Structures are given as structure tokens and as C-alpha cells.
């Protein structure tokens, strides 16, 4: 059994006029929300063997804030432009080529790609994939045998579900 965690970046900061999208950081609400997700991940002992993260500033910041929750060393993450400029098909290509010794992968990316990828992997339809939302998807086969519509959605967690 393999696990795929899909994490949409935390809410971004739009306060700097004229700032390039790629360079946008996190808003204070985003920091709060991703901290809730990280705490949940840590309490539930979620672990990942590999991290594929978009090279955009807000996705790096998102992962920085939840790396401890996943018990993953930030310096071992792979920061990829393909996760910023690519689409769900480029992520599927990355997943199919993951080393077979790896049992769990965290992908930190953007919408609409995260939304489409979740629907393509599971065959389910979701209404919205909000910022800081985390999906846990189970693959019963090897990475190389990844099939669309054949994975199981085990968890879809939104930060608002963790707020008291």
C-alpha cells in the first residue's frame, strides 16, 4: 500500500501591490490554518518518505510550517518548478516514477491542480479544495501501476474543521 498526501498551499498574502504571483508569501490566516493542519498531522503520526513541493514562495512557506508535523527534514524536500507551472498530468508522471521503496509522498501545490488531481486519482467529485486542505489518498498498487479513478480517498481535511 502506498499513500499520497496532497496539500494545497496556505492562504497567500495579496497585500504587496505588483508582486509576482510566484513570489507571494503567506497571509496570517494561512499561517494559522496550516499550523492547525500540522498539529493534526503530528497528533495522528502521519509520516512521509518523500516531499515534492512547488518552488513558489507560498508553497515553500506552507511546507516549512508543516514539515515538523510530518517529521520530515526540510532540506530533503524536492522543490520543483513543474509543480508551479505544470498540471495534474505532470504530477501523475512524477508519482508514477517515485522509487518503489518509498511508501508515502507529500505533494504541496496549487489549485486548480490539487483539486483536479484528487478527482482524477479517486474518481470522486469535490466541490472545493480550500487553501491548507489536506487529502490522504491510498494506492493499493505500486507507483508504476498508478491508475486514475482507482485510488481511495481516506481523508479530506479542511482547516475550518479543526477550529474550535
Please give a structural write-up.
- The protein has about 160 residues and is of the alpha/beta class.
- About 30% of the residues lie in helices and about 20% in strands.
- It contains 5 helices and 6 strands, in the order βαβαβααβαββ.
- The protein has helices at about 30-45, 55-65, 80-85, 90-95, 115-120; strands spanning about 1-10, 50-55, 80, 105-110, 135-140, 150-155.
- It has a 6-stranded mixed β-sheet with strand order 3-2-4-1-5-6, with helices on both faces.
- Helix 2 (about 55-65) links the parallel strand 2 and strand 3 (about 80).
- Helix 4 crosses helix 5.
- It starts with a strand and ends in a 7-residue tail after the last strand.
Brief overview:
By secondary structure, the chain is of the alpha/beta class.
Computed Rg: 15 Å
How far the N terminus sits from the C terminus, by CA atoms, comes to 34 Å
Give unreliable regions as ranges: none
The count of DSSP E runs of length 2 or more, i.e. the number of strands, is: 6
Largest sheet: 6 strands, mixed
Number of helices: 5
Report the principal-axis shape.
globular
Q: How large is the share of residues in beta strands? A: 15-25%
Widest sheet, order of strands: 3-2-4-1-5-6
Q: What level of helicity do the residues show?
A: 25-40%
Mean pLDDT: 94
**What structural category arises from helix and sheet content?**
alpha/beta
Order of helices and strands: EHEHEHHEHEE
Amino acid at each position: 500500500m502506498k499513500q499520497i498526501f496532497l496539500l494545497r498551499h496556505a492562504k497567500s498574502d495579496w497585500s504587496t501591490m505588483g508582486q509576482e504571483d510566484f513570489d507571494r508569501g503567506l497571509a496570517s490566516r494561512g499561517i494559522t490554518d496550516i499550523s492547525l493542519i500540522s498539529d493534526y498531522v503530528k497528533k495522528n503520526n502521519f509520516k512521509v518518505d518523500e516531499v515534492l513541493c512547488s518552488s513558489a514562495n507560498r508553497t515553500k512557506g506552507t511546507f516549512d510550517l508543516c514539515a515538523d508535523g510530518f517529521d520530515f527534514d526540510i532540506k530533503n524536500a524536492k522543490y520543483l518548478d513543474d509543480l508551479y507551472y505544470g498540471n495534474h498530468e505532470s504530477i501523475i508522471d512524477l508519482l508514477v516514477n517515485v522509487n518503489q521503496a518509498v511508501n508515502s509522498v507529500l505533494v504541496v501545490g496549487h489549485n486548480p491542480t490539487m483539486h483536479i488531481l484528487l478527482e482524477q486519482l479517486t474518481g470522486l467529485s469535490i466541490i472545493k479544495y480550500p487553501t491548507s486542505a489536506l487529502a490522504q489518498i491510498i494506492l493499493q498498487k505500486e507507483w508504476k501501476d498508478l491508475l486514475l479513478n482507482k485510488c481511495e480517498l481516506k481523508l479530506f481535511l479542511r482547516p475550518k474543521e479543526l477550529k474550535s
